[in-house]
Design a protein that fits this description.
Erythromycin esterase family protein; Hydrolase/PRTase-associated; EreA/ChaN-like  fold; two-stranded antiparallel sheet
């Protein structure tokens, strides 16, 4: 789960990230979690949803192509970067949001927009493939 601060407080209801930023100030470090494809458990105890590979308009597409197949990695978005990488992380972004209303048939419609990866997060953790959460009982 990631809680980026709201890109614009005027955009409506405050999200968890903006509340955490208010509470912790400059000590707050938002870390995003992204993935390429896999399976997730549906909200509310439903079945398993098959999440397709990301479309080319999503940041996950680039993140998935950048790493070794099957690898997980951390991207420090605050660190110095080559010009092409800095331009990409600073540009307006679209990143997948899998939540209660997620429908794999309309994957590209479920995304966060309105800022850059660097505005939203201090770092990103990206994994190539995810599996459904398991009950601990």
């Amino acid at each position: 789960m990631h809680f980026p601060p709201s890109p614009s407080p005027s955009r409506g209801q405050r999200n968890a990230g903006s509340l955490l930023r208010r509470r912790f100030g400059s000590a707050y470090r938002p870390i995003g979690f992204t993935f390429g494809r896999g399976q997730v458990r549906a909200y509310g105890g439903g079945g398993v949803l098959h999440v397709p590979p990301p479309g080319h308009t999503l940041a996950e597409h680039t993140l998935d192509a950048a790493g070794s197949p099957g690898a997980a990695y951390l991207v420090d978005l605050r660190a110095a970067a080559p010009p092409a990488v800095a331009a990409w992380r600073d540009a307006p972004a679209r990143t997948r949001m899998v939540g209660p209303g997620y429908d794999p048939a309309h994957d590209a419609d479920h995304c966060m927009t309105g800022g850059s990866l660097k505005q939203w997060f201090d770092a990103l953790v990206h994994v190539h493939q995810v599996t459904p959460a398991q009950t601990l009982s």
